[in-house]
Backbone:
């Protein structure tokens, strides 16, 4: 990068290259590919749905998915050795009209009325630019601002959406909650004003890790045999007992479909091999055919087959649902037995295979409502977590942990996001390799404290320590789950704390739209202001949780995940899908929020200015904020100088801790749709940008429309003036065991981390934070001047990847406001 | 951390004058460190990057890039030292009474006027640096006292070093060596590492470039090297045309070899401190070029052929 860019920038110390010519080709092919819409899966699924009216829902879902799997075109791209993917294209998305047809139809009818959209910015460069270029050249239509679709497919897709319009998950859910639910108006007004993130129905699932170990070790044929035994042994008593038959028959059907799918790939590989002239490619195609004849039906015989088997299960589970955060699990552990048992595979060959695998994962795109695409910036949050400890507490990092890190150092793909389960017993070689990867500037791996999560899960689930340690995985951005044992974190989206603050300051009215969401309440003292805030937060959160419980009831009626349920224990044993509580752990659903740091900073400013120093009255401060500080320069300076989170200053940290504790306790007061308490979580993805755009000015000196603080405990950009150790001291005051998933962003100038000495200092920083104990920290290691140059000259930075939130993204495909936010994070350089 | 960000609380223990405190410093001694910058320096090096460190008393820094010309400072100054010139406030330092109240600083809504040098009590300073004690422990880091010249506030420095040691915090002192022998003697047992800045061997040239000859400095260096050579890292500012000629590098290499210092660190000249001259009312000195990487490699080569460990700061 530096060779092409201005030499006055500090170089990123580690600049990787694909390990071989093949993966360099695959990466380039990816970077040059346009984004495509692929309607093949939804076409076959719809066709099957039309012919299965009246069938029990689990069996119907299995039949529909299997029907599609048996008909999808097997596509083996040039030079690929791992085959299969969600679409036929290099970069493709499946439009899940069965989840939410409405947003697609509204867009096709050119009347996208999503009120959220005005807060959302999308990127314009990279593969998005390629799509627009190709569209112009070939007469394709552009869908959702960035996906290409041929005119014929576009017409067919419209008919498919019309079929689903009144049957899809979103519509069934809306019919359930919009009429009788007393808080329905609050939810809808909340969407209008930016109090809540957009409806999550188009992409509700994910944050899910399947039991890949079981899939590989047993093979589908053995699982099918077990199902036959269960069916044969069923002696029903109560109705629920007889219902198990539906589940098992559905499980059988969906696995049969998967086997047929693999067989189609074997046939295609055999066909291509027959036609292939180049002997080395011919041999590769024969190996692909042999692998697809063997797996996933039977256990793999070598490392290559293990990766292929893993990938089939991964993709077919991914294809079934409209997932965000569907994750690879602890890949270094899952594949280790096959690596160790294969005498022919070398470390370098393993690295190259992982490079190929990561290109495959990055090729998966998703299409949802524009608002959600803006929030995730196209990232699918596939999070691969490495290292940590095993069930017995022994360090689990191994040679494949190093191979996986090396593969991403070489490739720097945006997917999967790599993470590290940190434990003080983790090997030095592993941690130094992780630090090396951080220094590429891609922003991963993020570091997670496994002990903190284990304690959280012990408190919430009561499961044995050994089980939690053994299965601790990451599902999505920063949400830990138990791989293969838990239903994914299916949550409604985010509550905007910043907007709640607007509503406090404007006495229940939204200052932008004039909509009244809460009764007027004019607080006269600091304590009353805090009370007003808590009251609104309580109402907004409770309504949000209850609304989502309605929606998930509709999920059970329309799109329960059958294939995935087969690979989550103990659905098979219990004869129940995940929606019916078949998983071992049902406490993963979270209530998410974003922007609490801004509220704490603002309350600290209100207390200091209006009730301690008497710089102004509360009424005057409200006026200044309503005027977006225009004409209040002096007062704004005092507000900016008031205590800010991230400087180890108890005057504001104490406020944050109180708000945080209150939020956590309140969230737990409501049961989720599986009958367990909701789990509090705070992370942010890209919400600080659209949420901030929706917010008026705040008493902390923030201007209207400026992004909010990112993450959970990240300081507001530019307000952490005492360095990264003070940020960590503030952040470590939080009890991270209270929440499922937290987030702290730190940005370093490359010179602060130079050499092995720089790596060791970084690791010492992480160790110190995790002793306190923190939960998560991630790093951007880039020169802000380089990022500014990348804004001005994007053509030179096509492959620049930076950390955004729980994910990394290609710089050129990010929106301008999000780019500005990453630049604005305080850069620690000494 | 921004200059002027070190806001001291009030307390009654011994006082020192500090113009900056930086956390997570990683280039001035091992591990993760806190850097404490003490104000006042007996030298005035031609390449100085911290000109606000020279005077021992507090002074006003005027950062015009932040100024939005509201002229509130002019109205606030009791001595009439700030007047409008072409719409901008101009500070006449001859008229500034250094009133101690710094009314102008308090009046500025943009922090375009800040104070260089805050009074810190010993207790408050120790409490501040102790906040990062876990980071020091895990990284092999500690506290580095820099300046200015820390020995210019020798009494406070010694008390601060002792305060760190009482808490088990490793210490380093960056010094130019222009200090009283008795103070260096008293400090030595309390200091784990001396970052000893040594510029020019030829005394007449030293005087020309820094304002003082190097007799005391060399004596102190030899004295210290005699007692604890392993604690000394010799730091050489590499300023093209001023300190990097063959004679000087050769002489420094000979000195480092003779004294058996732990290692030599090369500190390449950078122009980042130059805007600060105008901010405190000093004329900007001539701007030497920055050394090229090849130049640094050449110097390191000369040192290493003498068997001296050498590296970047």
Residues:
């Amino acid at each position: 990068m530096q060779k092409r860019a201005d030499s006055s920038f500090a170089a990123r110390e580690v600049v990787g290259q694909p390990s071989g010519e093949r993966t360099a080709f695959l990466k380039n092919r990816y970077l040059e590919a346009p984004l495509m819409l692929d309607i093949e899966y939804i076409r076959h699924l719809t066709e099957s749905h039309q012919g299965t009216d009246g069938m029990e829902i689990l069996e119907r879902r299995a039949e529909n998915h299997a029907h599609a799997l048996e008909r999808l075109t097997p596509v083996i791209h040039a030079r690929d050795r791992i085959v299969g993917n969600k679409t036929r294209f290099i970069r493709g998305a499946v439009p899940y009209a069965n989840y939410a047809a409405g947003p697609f139809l509204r867009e096709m009818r050119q009347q996208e009325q999503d009120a959220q959209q005005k807060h959302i910015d999308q990127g314009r460069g990279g593969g998005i630019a390629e799509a627009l270029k190709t569209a112009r050249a070939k007469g394709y239509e552009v869908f959702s601002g960035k996906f290409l679709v041929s005119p014929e497919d576009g017409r067919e897709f419209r008919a498919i959406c019309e079929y689903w319009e009144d049957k899809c998950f979103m519509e069934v859910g809306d019919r359930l909650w919009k009429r009788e639910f007393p808080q329905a108006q609050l939810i809808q007004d909340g969407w209008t004003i930016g109090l809540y993130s957009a409806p999550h129905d188009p992409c509700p699932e994910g944050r899910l890790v399947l039991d890949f170990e079981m899939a590989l070790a047993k093979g589908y044929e053995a699982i099918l045999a077990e199902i036959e035994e269960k069916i044969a042994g069923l002696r029903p008593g109560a109705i629920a007992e007889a219902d198990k038959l539906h589940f098992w028959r559905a499980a059988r059907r969906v696995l049969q479909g998967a086997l047929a799918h693999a067989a189609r790939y074997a046939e295609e590989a055999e066909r291509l091999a027959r036609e292939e002239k180049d002997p080395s490619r011919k041999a590769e195609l024969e190996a692909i055919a042999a692998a697809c004849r063997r797996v996933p039906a039977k256990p793999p015989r070598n490392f290559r087959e293990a990766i292929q088997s893993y990938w089939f299960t991964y993709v077919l589970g991914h294809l079934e649902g409209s997932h965000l955060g569907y994750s690879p699990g602890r890949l270094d552990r899952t594949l280790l037995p096959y690596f160790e048992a294969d005498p022919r595979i070398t470390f370098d060959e393993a690295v190259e295979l992982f490079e190929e695998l990561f290109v495959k994962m990055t090729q998966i795109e998703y299409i949802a409502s524009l608002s959600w695409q803006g929030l995730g910036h196209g990232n699918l949050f596939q999070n691969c977590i490495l290292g940590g400890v095993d069930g017995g507490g022994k360090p689990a990092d191994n040679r494949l942990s190093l191979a996986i890190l090396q593969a991403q150092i070489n490739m720097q793909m945006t997917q999967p996001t790599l993470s590290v389960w940190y434990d003080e017993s983790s090997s030095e070689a592993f941690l130094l390799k992780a630090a090396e990867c951080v220094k590429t500037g891609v922003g991963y791996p993020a570091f997670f404290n496994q002990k903190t999560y284990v304690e959280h899960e012990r408190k919430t689930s009561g499961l044995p320590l050994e089980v939690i340690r053994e299965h601790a995985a990451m599902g999505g951005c920063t949400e830990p789950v138990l791989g293969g044992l838990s239903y994914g974190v299916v949550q409604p989206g985010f509550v905007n704390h910043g907007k709640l603050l607007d509503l406090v300051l404007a006495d229940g009215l939204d200052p932008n739209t004039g909509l009244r969401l809460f009764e007027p309440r004019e607080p006269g003292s600091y304590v009353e202001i805090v009370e007003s805030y808590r009251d609104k937060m309580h109402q907004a959160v409770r309504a949000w949780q209850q609304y989502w419980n309605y929606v998930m009831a509709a999920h059970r009626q329309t799109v329960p995940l059958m294939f995935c349920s087969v690979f989550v224990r103990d659905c098979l044993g219990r004869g129940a899908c995940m929606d019916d509580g078949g998983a071992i752990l049902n406490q993963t659903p979270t209530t998410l929020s974003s922007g609490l740091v801004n509220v704490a900073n603002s309350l600290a400013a209100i207390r200091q200015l209006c009730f301690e120093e008497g710089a102004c009255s509360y009424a005057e401060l409200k006026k200044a904020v309503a005027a977006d500080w225009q004409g209040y320069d002096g007062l704004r300076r005092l507000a900016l100088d008031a205590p800010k989170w991230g400087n180890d200053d108890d005057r504001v940290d104490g406020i944050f801790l109180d708000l945080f504790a209150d939020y956590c306790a309140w969230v737990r007061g409501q049961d989720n749709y599986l009958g367990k308490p909701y789990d509090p979580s705070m992370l942010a993805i890209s919400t600080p940008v659209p949420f901030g755009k929706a917010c008026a000015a705040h008493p902390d000196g923030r201007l209207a429309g400026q992004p909010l603080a990112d993450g959970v405990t990240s300081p507001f950009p530019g307000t952490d003036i005492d360095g990264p150790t003070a940020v960590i001291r503030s952040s470590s005051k939080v009890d991270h065991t209270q929440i499922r998933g937290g987030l702290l962003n730190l940005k370093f100038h490359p010179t602060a981390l130079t050499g092995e000495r720089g790596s060791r200092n970084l690791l010492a920083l992480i160790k110190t934070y995790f002793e306190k104990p923190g939960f998560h920290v991630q790093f951007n290691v880039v020169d802000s001047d380089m990022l500014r140059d990348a804004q001005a000259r994007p053509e030179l930075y096509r492959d620049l990847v930076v950390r955004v939130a729980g994910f990394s993204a290609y710089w050129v495909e990010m929106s301008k406001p999000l780019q500005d936010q990453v630049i604005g994070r305080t850069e620690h350089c000494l | 951390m921004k200059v002027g960000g070190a806001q001291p609380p009030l307390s009654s223990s011994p006082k020192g004058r500090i113009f900056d405190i930086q956390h997570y410093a990683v280039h001035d001694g091992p591990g993760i460190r806190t850097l404490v910058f003490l104000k006042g320096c007996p030298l005035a090096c031609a390449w100085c990057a911290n000109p606000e460190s020279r005077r021992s008393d507090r002074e006003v820094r005027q950062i015009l890039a932040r100024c939005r010309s509201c002229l509130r400072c002019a109205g606030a100054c009791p001595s009439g030292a700030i007047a409008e010139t072409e719409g901008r406030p101009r500070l006449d330092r001859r008229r500034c009474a250094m009133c101690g109240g710094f009314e102008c600083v308090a009046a500025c809504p943009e922090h375009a006027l800040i104070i260089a040098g805050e009074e810190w009590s010993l207790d408050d300073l120790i409490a501040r640096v102790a906040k990062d004690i876990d980071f020091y422990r895990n990284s092999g880091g500690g506290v580095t006292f820099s300046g200015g010249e820390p020995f210019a506030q020798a009494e406070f420095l010694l008390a601060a070093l002792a305060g760190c040691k009482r808490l088990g915090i490793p210490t380093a002192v960056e010094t130019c060596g222009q200090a009283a022998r008795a103070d260096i003697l008293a400090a030595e047992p309390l200091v784990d590492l001396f970052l000893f800045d040594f510029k020019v061997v030829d005394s007449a040239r030293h005087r020309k470039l820094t304002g003082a000859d190097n007799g005391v400095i060399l004596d102190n260096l030899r004295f210290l090297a005699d007692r604890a050579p392993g604690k000394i890292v010799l730091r050489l500012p590499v300023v093209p045309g001023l300190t990097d000629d063959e004679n000087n590098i050769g002489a420094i290499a000979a000195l480092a070899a003779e004294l058996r210092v732990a290692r030599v660190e090369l500190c390449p000249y950078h122009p980042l401190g130059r805007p600060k001259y105008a901010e405190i009312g000093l004329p900007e000195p001539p701007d030497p070029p920055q050394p090229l990487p090849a130049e640094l490699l050449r110097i390191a080569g000369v040192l290493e052929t003498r068997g001296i460990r050498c590296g970047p700061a």
User: Anything to note?
Assistant: The first helix of chain A runs from residue 21 to 32. Chain A touches chain B through 26 residues (CB under 8 Å). The two ends of chain A are 23 Å apart (CA to CA). Residues 1-7, 111-116 of chain A have pLDDT under 50 and may be disordered.
